[in-house]
Write a structure and sequence with these properties.
The chain is 79% helix and 0% strand. It has 298 residues and is mostly helical. Helix 2 runs antiparallel to helix 3 and helix 3 packs antiparallel against helix 10. One of its GO terms (cellular component) is plasma membrane.
Length: 298
Amino acid sequence: MPDIFQFILAGIVVGFCVGVTGVGGGSLMTPILIGLFKIEPHVAIGTDLLYAAISKFCGSMVHAKKLNIVWPIVGWLALGSIPASLGTSWVLEHILSGSNQYKAILTMVLGFMLTLTGISIVFRHRIEAFFKRRSKSIASAVELSREQIAQLVSRKKLQVIIMGVVLGVFVTLSSVGAGAFGVMALILMFANLPMIRIIGSDVVHAVALTLVAGLSHMSAGNVDFHLLGWLLVGSIPAIIVGTLVSSRMPEHLIRRVLGITLLLLGINFMINPVKAKPAAPKPQQHAQLIVSTSNVKA
């Protein structure tokens, strides 16, 4: 096992990137745990979900204080995502956990979500610019009132619930998607909402979803608290530092490098998923194997 300094360093790197670019820690931390530290996929995903819930909580408080949250969006998203997350966790624990393809399924889903996240990060500004142009043609120049926003969300509540279900399933399976992918989906549905309100709503929903998914993984024994603690020791100060220096950093360049890296990692995980190790022979079977080998030699 890598020593604690390597875990702290990983937390620092991910936390700093999150502070500078706003890219969610889940899309960065899980590949690091699996690819560099060789943590089992289900443990990496479960640990990272709780890591994401804790690390995003402070950001959600800032958005709440600045009134950047559209609570009806959060509520309808949660109505779809929380039951979907609990159902997915039950399937993982009671059905898929005994399958030989368990790890391969998790890493292939992780690869798929990393690929989508990488694409959304690389082309985020173009996507945002497109929908800003679109929003100008479908919305008035006057900022929407609270009642107008509530009516807008109410008209699209079914789509929001369905989106929540999709996020609940994929975030629980991969720990990726609650951040960048969630924001892109909300932009598609609410192009005439201010970007800061979309981001604030997504962050608050991500805290709730990753917490529920992380606790479900914890009940299945998929969380390494020793690893979680040291990751947080490194990442929380680094997020603060990254946020403070973000205005002086080449954010566009860093975001593009991260997006391309996640895209390549995602493709690699889909092509080369982590496979389960062959089960070790039981003592009785091992003894029989030794006897049969001795008879052959004789």
